[in-house]
């Protein structure tokens, strides 16, 4: 179960006011009492929560139960019977509280859900009784014989719990989608979409449930009604989340979602926020990391107008976030189909992207520069690109990107900086087949920088992919300008096989003491 990553102290502070003693809750019929420092955090449901808050509490409760069941299995392996029993009592409490909490706000739960609730409660009671018997005996043979029964009961509890949660989440997704489809109220529709988006943030499994229950169909229906225009950004953001799973992509194809997105992107009457969220959906469905994009045949039919609209959005972006979404979509499309690079060349996209990079208000993060250099790298396979790079002072930009470093130390930002360095070196290597580009690179001192990146692991954050790209670029430039290298650099970084130079550079800081 996915939980948002936050600072542990912050999470403790949030949970502190909700703590209760689990064992005493069972005895005192869930009445909150003062906490004991040895006890686990407990959740208490407030009647003021709306549907979205109720679902978040349900998911948090489910995560706690799932974690406790895992810990019980671990303690059982070590024969920690006292701990197994206390944790079983706690799980029993959590399960009953979760069911009571859910039934307090649920509308029309199915008969199947009630059946699983009863099965789960009965099995939890049986589980507690088993573990209680275990702490009352010290006979190793009896404990050994009971261990398999307890393991079997634990497996059954986990199965019933998983089935119940699946039914609950499916039921809630159905309720939200029914609201979206049937309500004429802007306020109710907006709340339902907001709740649906919150569910999509809980992981791929929930996205699959929503997709299977018709979430993509319902949301595109909203995007085809002018009366809901103000909800388009929120609706498209939810669609982008659902389309991270294969089921969502299949549904998008069935409802002609690509055509709808193309219409939104090319309609100048829509707000920039709507265009940006439509670009985010395009970026999601064309992601090179997904393995199930091949069936998007309708995308190729609409690709030219989509690419044209995205280039326009990059050119007119009023913020770094809008530019990032539009450029990410373009970067992914250049992987998706090679024809996109030719369209970009015809649209003078190279000039637009290079100009944007000089505006620190628009291209303001390594993530944005990563998208730009990805497009440049993929376009650099075309011979016509060299002249565009020279005209737009692109070699200077690529040189600057070789110095990309993270200012925060954040792991995601560090990874983005590595990609920027790698792709800028790849682009230089590809473009340096043109003598004019190679000459410009040499004059800008690209060779010393590439040597530094090869020889100093800290300069490239110990990245092997950056090293390989820099070695390739250095060898290409060395052919065009051999006088730019010292003999030792030539002998170690250019003359040997690339794999030998790679091994030499990766071993430079090893200690053999």
UniProtKB/TrEMBL annotation:
Residues 4-48 form the Protein inscuteable homologue LGN-binding domain. Residues 61-513 form the Protein inscuteable homologue C-terminal domain. It holds the Pfam family Insc_C. This is INSC protein. Coiled coil: none annotated. GO terms for molecular function: cytoskeletal anchor activity. One of its GO terms (cellular component) is apical cortex. CDD domains: INSC_LBD. GO terms for biological process: apical protein localization; asymmetric cell division; establishment of mitotic spindle orientation; regulation of asymmetric cell division. InterPro entries: ARM-like, ARM-type_fold, Armadillo, Insc_C, INSC_LBD, INSC_LBD_sf, Inscuteable.
């Amino acid at each position: 179960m996915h939980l948002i990553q936050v600072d542990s102290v912050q999470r403790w502070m949030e949970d502190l006011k909700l703590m209760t003693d689990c064992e005493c809750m069972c005895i005192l019929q869930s009445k909150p009492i003062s906490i004991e420092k040895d006890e686990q955090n407990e959740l208490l449901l407030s009647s003021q929560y709306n549907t979205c808050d109720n679902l978040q509490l349900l998911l948090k409760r489910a995560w706690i139960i799932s974690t406790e069941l895992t810990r019980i299995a671990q303690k059982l392996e070590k024969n920690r019977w006292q701990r197994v029993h206390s944790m079983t009592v706690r799980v029993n409490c959590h399960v009953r509280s979760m069911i009571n909490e859910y039934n307090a706000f649920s509308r029309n739960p199915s008969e199947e859900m009630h059946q699983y609730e009863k099965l789960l409660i009965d099995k939890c009671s049986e589980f507690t009784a088993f573990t209680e018997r275990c702490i009352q005996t010290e006979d190793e043979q009896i404990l050994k014989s009971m261990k398999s029964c307890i393991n079997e009961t634990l497996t059954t509890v986990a199965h019933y719990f998983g089935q119940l949660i699946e039914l609950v989440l499916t039921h809630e997704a159905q309720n939200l989608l029914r609201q979206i489809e049937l309500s004429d109220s802007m306020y109710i529709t907006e709340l339902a979409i907001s709740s649906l988006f919150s569910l999509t943030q809980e992981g791929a499994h929930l996205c699959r449930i929503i997709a299977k229950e018709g979430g993509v169909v319902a949301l595109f229906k909203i995007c085809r009604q002018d009366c809901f225009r103000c909800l388009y950004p929120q609706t498209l953001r939810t669609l982008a989340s659902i389309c991270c799973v294969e089921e969502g992509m299949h549904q998008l194809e069935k409802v002609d979602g690509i055509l709808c997105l193309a219409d939104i992107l090319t309609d100048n009457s829509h707000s920039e926020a709507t265009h940006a969220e439509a670009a985010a959906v395009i970026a999601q469905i064309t992601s090179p990391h997904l393995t199930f994009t091949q069936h998007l045949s309708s995308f190729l039919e609409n690709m030219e107008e989509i690419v044209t609209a995205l280039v326009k959005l990059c050119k007119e972006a009023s913020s770094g976030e809008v530019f990032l979404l539009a450029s990410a979509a373009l970067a992914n499309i250049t992987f998706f189909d090679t024809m996109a690079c030719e369209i970009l060349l015809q649209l003078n996209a190279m000039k637009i992207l290079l100009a944007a990079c000089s505006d620190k208000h628009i291209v303001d993060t390594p993530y944005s520069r990563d998208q730009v250099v990805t497009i440049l790298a993929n376009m650099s396979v075309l011979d016509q690109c060299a002249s565009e790079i020279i005209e737009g002072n692109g070699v200077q930009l690529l040189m600057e990107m070789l110095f990309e470093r993270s200012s925060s130390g954040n792991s995601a930002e560090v990874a983005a900086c590595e990609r920027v360095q790698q792709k800028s070196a790849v682009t230089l290597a590809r473009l340096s087949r043109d003598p004019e580009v190679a000459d410009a690179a040499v004059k800008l001192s690209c060779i010393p920088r590439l040597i530094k990146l090869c020889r100093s692991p800290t300069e490239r954050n110990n990245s092997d992919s950056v090293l390989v790209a820099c070695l390739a670029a250095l060898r290409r430039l060395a052919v065009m300008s051999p006088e730019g290298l010292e003999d030792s650099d030539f002998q170690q970084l250019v003359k040997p096989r690339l794999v030998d130079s790679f091994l030499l550079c990766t071993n430079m800081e090893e200690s053999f003491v």
